[in-house]
Amino acid sequence: MNQLQKRLAGDVKKGLAELAPRVGERVRLEARSSRGRFNVQLIGYRQSGSVVVTAPRQSGSAVVLSEGAVLTARMMAGNWVCSFDTRLIKVQAQPYPHWHLAFPEQVDARRLRTHTRVPVNLAVSVDLDDSEMGMMGAPVSAWCSDIHIEGACIEAPKLLAKIGQKIFVTARVSVAGIDHVVLAPAVVRKLHELESGAFNVIAHGVEFVELEEDTRLILAGFVYQQHLVETGLMPEGGDPAL
Q1: Fewer CB in 10 Å around end: N or C, the chain?
Q2: Interatomic CA distance for residues 74 and 88, integer angstroms
Q3: For 200, how many CA atoms within 13 A lie in the half-sphere containing its CB?
């Protein structure tokens, strides 16, 4: 069982035609023998036939792989993260370079939910909302250890706010290679003390509230991107170059 299959253990089995991935969807191929990883695009598929993808290239040159090579494919289909084992059954050079992959009997699929958490190691700045006194608290440096579309876990060496208090989380995130500074209002919902070596760390479970539309879109893009990195569908650093 490969690493992706272990992560997806217990998830649903679906047919590729049922998932109906879009033409042009990015596909990540992993070769078992060479441990090579290639980014390609879906051209089409036919049940009981094959899955057709663009031929991968590395450093401007075509990737040479023998027909019959065993591969693992990873891709998105709507809001499903998919994985299936296949093999290279035909390499075609005309009318353009493309590969035919064996059509999978079943696909391991995991639904990407709104509350799907992804681990991160993100430096943030936290300000306490002290609006009743007509001022903001001094910013405190902290770390975001995981994030989802609706909230995050913020860790700090001291208590940043009590349950129910509002804070403002500022972070610099990169989405598709573009840096954004986001300011996300949040409310502390949970507190938990963690032991971390010689120092104690307070984990603050926060819920994002009153997000501006631009901020919500940036956060959604960042979470989606990190999920692709975590599941191996995108290289570390978020570079989706094909």
Answers
A1: N
A2: 15
A3: 6
Do 141 and 215 lie in a common domain?
A: yes
Q: Which of 78, 96, 111 is the last residue of a domain?
A: 111
What's the whole-model pTM score? Answer: 0.55
Residue 18 structure tokens: 């049922």
Residue 102 confidence (pLDDT) above 70: yes
Shared domain check, 143 and 82: no
Give CA 76 to chain center in angstroms.
11
Neighbours of 240 (CB within 10 A): 15
Per-residue pLDDT tens over the stretch 103-143:
999 999 877 666 667 888 999 999 987 654 444 557 899 99
Residue 176, both tokens = 């598709």
What are residue 166's DSSP bridge partners? 187
Residue-number span of the structural domain to which 69 is assigned: 3-111
